[in-house]
Design a protein that fits this description.
alpha/beta; Rossmann fold; Helicase, Ruva Protein, domain 3; seven-stranded mixed sheet; 17% strand; elongated; methyltransferase
Amino acid sequence: MSKHNPRLPGRHELGQNHLVDDRVISRIAELIRAEAPGPVLELGAGDGALTNALISTGRSVTAVEIDPRRVQTLRRRFGDRAEVVHADLLTHQAACPGHHIVSNVPFHLTTPLLRRLLDLRDWRTAVLLLQWEVARKRAGVGGTTMLTALWWPWYEFTLAGRVPAAAFRPIPAVDGGLLIMRRRVESLAPGDERSDYQRLVRSVFTGRGTGLRGILTRLAPEPLVNRWLRSEGFTGAELPRRLSAEQWIGLYRVISTDDGSDTLAKRLRSNRGHTATMKPRRQSTRH
């Protein structure tokens, strides 16, 4: 197995576990090569192993790195073949819209980076190397998480493989996983429904009750809940993590267009402390 050996050790305080397995590096580059044309923004370039592979795809590459020592090393190594930016991956603003994102994410920054990326509107595809279990859950394998359900109408989440811990230096305690996030070409809900939809998802995931029936009957009339459960082939004992993207948006449509939506809005405000209301909206497939 060919290995890439970084010249500088990872700085523990920056949470750096550098990717050193050439097979995994090539795999990430191929995933980007398969995407539509567009520049690449690498967040957390480290020693540049991924940067070099991304340059080989023929795309314009901007590499962001917070460690000033490594910034200087990267600039000397790549010259004008890549733009190297000294910045924090959680705050850097991309200069070019329509780009693709690549990151070997420091494990302790996984959740804040995911939340930030999902809230941005300027990128197309993100190929992220995360902890294995996090990548599985974000892709909805074996049940989804609230974070994925919140954004499913606007993004697709795909698991692209497992990366052994031995592929990193220093070697972490857990394996990694490749997660691909793609902005949907045709959204399942328009962007102006996002806050209402996400309020419902949060209320269901954090609601009291046993199973979907117990949770949903606190939010909507029982006959309405029962009809929806039957239409999906559910018994009502299932947990929210069982729902697919289409089922989440279907539930939102049923509840938000029901005559009792004003009552539902009050219950959601009471449950989560929000002041906005859910209102019936015209269905649309575009973001």
